[in-house]
């Protein structure tokens, strides 16, 4: 149904019912994930928690991970959440003192550069790079 509506309809799949069912199931999972995030992660639904920055970070995760790919969304989320942790704990171990405000600014600069690079060089994001890497490792000793 997702790839070719006409072919799905020709083999007897009712498109409206199938698309509505897919929308309902995905909405259910989004609602459960949102409820878990609010009450288990944040402790309560306060308006200050859900600002525009959260929406942008979710959009950045999808762009860096790869548009239209579930694996890419996971990779993008991992990168966006691990990057600030690395920026806070890695420079002091290397002997570079950084204040928290500097870490925040560097984080925004790196995320912005990653978004521009991925949109220009690899629009399919980390998911496509993961596929290429798997393909290269599959035929590694004998490339053809």
Describe this structure in words.
It is a single chain. The chain is mostly helical. 76% of the residues lie in helices and 0% in strands. The chain contains 6 helices and no strands. Helix 4 (70-94) runs antiparallel to helix 5 and helix 4 (70-94) packs across helix 6. The radius of gyration is 20 Å and the shape is flat. The mean pLDDT is 88.
Assign an overall shape: flat
Main pleated sheet:
none
**H-E string:** HHHHHH
How far from one another are the termini?
Answer: 35 Å
Number of strands: 0
How much β-strand is present in the residues? under 5%
Rg calc: 20 Å
Average pLDDT: 88
Helix content: over 70%
Q: What structural category arises from helix and sheet content?
A: mainly alpha
List the uncertain runs: none
Count of runs of 4 or more consecutive helical residues = 6
